């Protein structure tokens, strides 16, 4: 395996449209890096440039000690797993797995040993004599994964490989892929992985680190816990987390103490909270995750009075939607703590937990509350 580096990588198309804006990214040897972002953010374009399926119009892609900008895909030491599996329909699973090795004209006994090993790791031994049309979606994806694994490449590239599977299969395949990555690492065969998805659940549960992208720019690169707890900007804060973070315009003022004002309502910020906010007085974007918003009685000190607009019963929890001074909020309440007498139209207080308040710059979106 090898380290992967992108240095000032750009992609500009013939019509002048710039899809990727000079991004820098290092994926350590054996690391599982996830590229995540909304549709059109250029995460797949970036992956295809690493693979050599898209030309690079600026910057440098390096795999190990080799600059691969001008190398064809087959010479880059990569293996790619696609969304649509890309299995050869006329070949049985055994030949699909071994196809890349046969192209290299390896000895027959070596190919057979590699096929047996990979099929054992992925638990697809019973499928070796089936055609792709005889496989379920999960089985086909495991075969596609095996075809990449058998090549023992420098870097594995995954392009939304689970998006065609149902929710239950996606969950099981997430576990299978991450378990395989950890097993290879434990066996001294670390696999360097770049995994593209638009699904933040996949990103948060699979990645050692996550690269959040928007419009061809990198917004933040960090481990899952840091992205959730310390988002660098309002975009990352709103993209990571379910339900998404509440982001509303407020006014910050400092006098005898720091105050946050929403419309005609104000709450005082404790000194430990105010001390880590380095935004100037004036309009700010207030961010608070639904899990960090307590529902209390209206009129409670430190809470905004609001009106319930909807209640979503999710089984283990309730998503309470409310409006305060024209701003929409969602609060997540554990089902056992939910007051079943509450209904749409009732008044409640919404109390942000001070240690979990985020303050973002209105113009740049930068998080101004990170100590």
Automatic annotation (TrEMBL):
InterPro entries named among the record's database cross-references: AAA+_ATPase, ABC_transporter-like_ATP-bd, ABC_transporter-like_CS, ABC_transpr_MalK-like, ABC_transpr_MalK/UgpC-like, Mo/tungstate-bd_C_term_dom, NA-bd_OB-fold, P-loop_NTPase
Keyword Transport among record annotations: yes
Family annotation (CDD domains): ABC_MalK_N (cd03301)
Keywords linked to the UniProt accession: ATP-binding, Nucleotide-binding, Transport
Segments forming domain ABC transporter: 4-240
SMART domains named in the record: AAA
Entry-linked SUPFAM superfamilies: MOP-like, P-loop containing nucleoside triphosphate hydrolases
Alphabetical list of Pfam families matching this protein: ABC_tran, TOBE_2
One cellular component term from this protein's GO annotations in UniProt: ATP-binding cassette (ABC) transporter complex, substrate-binding subunit-containing
Family to which this protein belongs: Belongs to the ABC transporter superfamily.
Protein name: Carbohydrate ABC transporter ATP-binding protein, CUT1 family
Natural source organism: Poseidonocella sedimentorum
Lineage: Bacteria, Pseudomonadati, Pseudomonadota, Alphaproteobacteria, Rhodobacterales
